[in-house]
Write a structure and sequence with these properties.
Layout: H1 2-21, E1 26-31, E2 45-47, E3 69-70, E4 73-74, H2 75-83, E5 88-91, E6 115-117, E7 123-125, H3 131-141, E8 144-149, H4 156-167, H5 173-180, E9 191-194, H6 207-219, E10 227-234, H7 238-248, E11 254-261, H8 277-304, E12 311-319, H9 338-353, E13 358-364, E14 374-377, E15 380-383, H10 385-393, E16 400-402, E17 404-407, E18 410-413, E19 416-419, E20 421-428, E21 431-438, E22 445-452, E23 459-465, E24 482-485, E25 489-492, E26 495-500, E27 504-510
Parallel strand pairs: 1-22, 2-5, 2-13, 5-8, 8-9, 9-10, 10-11, 11-12, 12-13
Antiparallel strand pairs: 1-17, 3-4, 6-7, 14-15, 16-20, 18-19, 20-21, 21-27, 22-26, 23-24, 23-27, 25-26
Helix pairs in contact: 4-5, 6-7, 7-8, 8-9, 9-10
The chain binds alpha-L-arabinofuranose.
The site of alpha-L-arabinofuranose (AHR) has 10 residues, from loops.
């Protein structure tokens, strides 16, 4: 009996070794000998709007809260965001930005006027989280700030004064006001956007009209080193990009585009947690559309800006499902499953691969809203599957993009097919980092790698996966989806072979 067990174990070991060294189904070539553009760390940016419990409850609980905090900012959330090396946070919206008058959010809190948050649930916004709070929070997290100006219901003067209040070192009424409100030194804010979704909630404008308005605003936005961002297209509105580039390239540093992954229709988007394999397939297929969008918008930008000075900024992306049953429909609160981990991994791979033009992206949204990296409920905090993907991918921040060729199996369902493997790679500090998604929920993917220009001798890895496609992390329960060490990769004679688990996001690092 003992002999039989030994033989069985030996056979199993031989089989595992064979699986790792046998002929691979998929082939990935990483061109470490042809380094591409820098992957701007801002691609790993986040979006935080005055919407539902993103700001209030998620980031800010006030100094008198019994939830542990520093100056009113939740300590648990701040710590978790620091661990992600969040490089950038966009604020205050979103649609909210074009209703926001910044002077309502400065000075003694008890004197700040309230407004109605007309876009998001019609709730009262007491403005206790304003410019100082946002910029202090960014400093606490170690993130750059990205401020979205109000164009829809604001004025050029209001925008110019906000910029002066935040950034100026000179003596002026605005800087005196800032100092009176407790901030002597200016903040270093580089990124400023002129309105949000100006084709929709930001004013229902035509691109010809907005292009002129943008030029008007941009003329009076004055601060050293500013990165001026024009509000860009809705999904595949290529005419918008064409008109903006034709009329306003000279005055902009970045042009945005927004695209959300909605599994169903806008009327019936689908559940965040209760879905079948067909919904998984359709959702990932819709996520892959990001590649087409970025490619086509970039091609238009190339016509007017062949040197790629202007960045394409995907400053809103992520999954958008039906809200969780029983929650305020205006608060856009949704759970986050392994499917969202794949959505994040695929999108971030696409942005890395287009790093020559894509210089920023902002997941919508950071906390408690849409595809959040963190969920909170009173004192409790949950790190979502999306959080762990951002943790794996942070190695790409400010790395050099390495071109990658993927020849892979198809993931087929009901007669429709997708590439089963989606990937990107970068080089930083002599380490090649490859991030891979296996979209197939039923089959592992055996991959043989060629790393042109490098003969690796050391390998390590991390993986995010779970046993079910709709596994998620919930309050008061053990996390079902988190990062783990990844061992199914080996180097032999400089050749790298790996096996990706089904439905997984994997990081492989080589040196
Ligand atoms: O992220 C939620 C909303 O989606 C934003 O406020 C708006 O810009 C977009 O339509």
């Amino acid at each position: 009996m003992r002999n039989f067990s030994a033989i069985t174990v030996l056979t199993a070991l031989v089989l595992v070794a064979f699986t790792l060294s046998g002929s691979a189904q998929n082939r990935v070539v990483v061109r470490a000998d042809q380094p591409g553009a820098k992957i701007d760390k801002a691609i790993y940016g986040h979006f935080a709007e005055h919407l539902g419990h993103c700001i209030y409850g998620g980031i800010y609980v006030g100094e008198n809260s019994d939830i542990p905090n520093v100056k009113g900012f939740r300590s648990d959330v701040t710590g978790a965001l620091k661990d992600l090396s969040v490089p950038l946070i966009r604020w205050p919206g979103g649609c909210f930005a074009d209703t926001y008058h910044w002077m309502d959010g400065i000075g003694p809190k008890e004197q700040r006027p309230s407004i109605i948050n007309v876009h998001w649930g019609g709730v009262t916004e007491n403005n206790s989280f304003g410019t100082h709070e946002f910029l202090d929070f960014c400093e606490l997290v170690g993130a750059d700030a990205y401020v979205n100006l109000n164009v829809g219901s604001g004025t050029v003067r209001e925008a110019a004064e906000w910029i002066e209040y935040v950034t100026s070192t000179n003596e002026s009424p605005m800087t005196s006001l800032r100092k009176k409100n407790g901030r002597e030194k200016p903040w270093n804010v580089k990124y400023w956007a002129v309105g949000n979704e100006t084709w929709g909630c930001g004013g229902n404008m035509r691109p010809e009209y907005y292009a002129d308005l943008y030029r008007n605003y941009a003329t009076f936005m004055r601060a050293p080193g500013m990165y001026k961002i024009a509000s860009g297209a809705n999904v595949e509105d290529y005419k918008w990009t064409e008109v903006m580039m034709r009329e306003a390239t000279r005055w902009m540093n970045g042009l945005s585009v927004h695209y959300y992954t909605v599994p169903g229709t806008w009327q019936s988007k689908g559940s965040a947690t209760d879905f079948n394999e067909l919904a998984w397939f359709n959702t990932l297929q819709k996520t892959l559309k990001m590649d087409t969008l970025v490619t086509k918008h970039s091609a238009i930008m190339d016509k007017y800006d062949p040197k790629k000075r202007v960045g394409l900024l995907v400053d809103e992306w992520g999954s958008w499902y039906n809200v969780e049953p029983g929650t305020n429909p205006g608060f856009l609160y949704q759970q986050n499953t392994l499917r969202d981990a794949l959505i994040a991994g695929i999108n971030l791979n696409i942005f890395n691969n287009h790093a020559d033009r894509v210089r920023m992206s902002n997941i919508a949204q950071m906390i408690n809203v849409l595809q959040a990296v963190i969920l909170t409920k009173e004192k409790e905090m949950v790190l979502t599957p999306t959080y762990y993907v951002f943790k794996l991918y942070k190695v790409h921040q400010d790395g050099t993009m390495l071109p990658i060729e993927v020849k892979c199996n198809q993931y087929t369902l009901e007669g429709k097919s997708l590439d089963a493997v989606n990937a990107s790679a970068s080089l930083k500090n002599g380490i090649v980092s490859i991030t891979l998604c296996n979209l197939d929920p039923n089959n592992t993917q055996q991959i043989s790698f060629e790393i042109a220009g490098l003969t690796p001798s050391k390998v390590s890895g991390k993986v995010v996966t779970a046993s079910k496609i709709n596994a998620y992390n919930d309050f008061g329960k053990k996390a079902e989806v988190m990062e783990a060490d990844y061992k199914n990769v080996k180097i032999s004679n400089g050749k790298v072979d790996a096996v990706l688990p089904s439905k997984s996001v994997v990081l492989i690092q080589l040196q």
